[in-house]
Design goal:
By secondary structure, the chain is α+β, with helices and mostly antiparallel strands. It has one domain: Alpha-Beta Plaits (2-Layer Sandwich), CATH 3.30.70.100. The protein contains three helices and four strands; from the N terminus they run E-H-E-E-H-H-E. The longest helix is centred in the first third of the chain and has 16 residues.
Length: 101
């Protein structure tokens, strides 16, 4: 399993709308692709402008198989519906180590 971790700067007054639109647009679109497992949204009480998205994928290959033009179209729809663009302040990738091995 692979984890895609995105930290996004979102003004506190937009966070609830950001989370709602993210679920409606991004999560719904990603869930249509093979390999998508789940998504969690984390809020950092010490950083009130930070929203962290933790997306789980079966494999890196399945995650990266989503065409760039599709991702661009999803992002354009998200920005249009949210009414603004929020800055990704960190983008990371993690492999989940299987302790049963």
């Amino acid at each position: 399993m692979v984890i895609e971790l995105l930290k996004i700067k979102v003004p506190p007054e937009l966070q609830q709308e950001f989370i709602r639109k993210d679920a409606q647009i991004w999560t719904a679109a990603l869930a249509e692709y093979d390999g998508y497992l789940t998504k969690q949204v984390w809020l950092n009480p010490r950083q009130p402008t930070e929203v962290t998205l933790c997306i789980s994928w079966e494999s890196r290959e399945q995650w990266k198989a989503i065409p760039q033009n599709v991702l661009t179209a999803i992002e354009q729809k998200f920005v249009q519906e949210l009414g603004c663009s929020c800055q990704i302040i960190e983008s990371s990738e993690y492999e989940v180590y299987d302790l049963s091995k």
